[in-house]
Write a structure and sequence with these properties.
single chain; 221 residues; alpha/beta; 8-stranded parallel β-barrel; binds D-xylitol-5-phosphate; binds zinc ion
Length: 221
């Protein structure tokens, strides 16, 4: 099983974002999770395609997974694809035509994901499973960094895994929100293989030590 750690920039020092991304990747993170909030789909406001492009220009060449917490999404899909996104994930409730948005992501040669909130019906997964490269299961309600992992999310991961098995799909399940050293093994055992962590990494002094500690938790299965 390949496990990936995706570092959410939301808890990084934005005044020093390029360096923060370099450091976290050097410390062993596999990719950068780029949280886009629009003060409409969620109450918070973060960063857009210009900042993604700036990271690419700064020399960040690891995959950037863009998590759109915005409504609408289509215009931003195009802009983020041009700005160097590798994966683009959106919330199905936030677009008028899910298939069109997924097709748009593919047209721009990015990987496509659907982001599923704790209360989003799983029907979206069933309906679009053939068009997804990954699933982003939210283990908090989106909008803010540093929230506590919702324990019921473990059941949701198992449900998503069961849907994938039923359809004989091997796409990865990413889990986002409140991932810490004390829950990452449970989340992995439930079926996730990509772990998004923001505050658990960026709020520590030594990113390498933190990421190594995460990896060690993933060895004990
Ligand atoms: C929540 C964001 C998450 C979050 C992760 O709305 O999508 O990516 O910032 O941060 P932590 O790991 O601090 O929960
Ligand atoms: Zn996110």
């Amino acid at each position: 099983m390949t496990y990936l750690l995706s570092a959410s920039i939301l808890s990084a020092n934005f005044a020093n974002l390029g360096e923060e991304c370099k450091n976290v990747l050097h410390a062993g993170a596999d990719r950068i999770h780029f949280d886009v909030m629009d003060n409409h789909y969620v109450p918070n406001l973060t960063v857009g395609p210009l900042v993604c492009k700036a990271l690419r220009n700064y020399g960040i060449d690891a995959p950037i997974d863009v998590h759109l917490m915005t409504n609408p999404v289509d215009r931003l899909i195009e802009d983020f694809a041009k700005a160097g996104a590798s994966v683009i994930t959106f919330h199905p409730e936030a677009t008028e035509n899910i298939q069109h948005s997924l097709d748009l992501i593919k047209k721009h040669k990015c990987n496509a994901g659907l982001a599923i909130n704790p209360n989003t019906p799983f029907k979206y997964l069933e309906d679009y499973i053939d068009h997804l490269d990954e699933i982003l299961l939210m283990s908090v309600n989106p909008g803010f960094a540093g929230q506590a992992f919702i324990p019921e999310s473990v059941e949701n991961i198992k449900k998503a895994k069961a849907i994938l098995d039923k359809h004989k799909k091997q796409i990865p399940i990413a889990v986002d929100g409140g991932i810490k050293l004390d829950n990452i093994s449970t989340v992995a055992k439930a079926g996730a293989s990509i772990f998004v962590a923001g505050s658990a990494i960026f709020n520590t002094e030594n990113y390498s030590a933190t990421i190594n500690a995460f990896r060690e938790k993933l060895l004990i299965r």
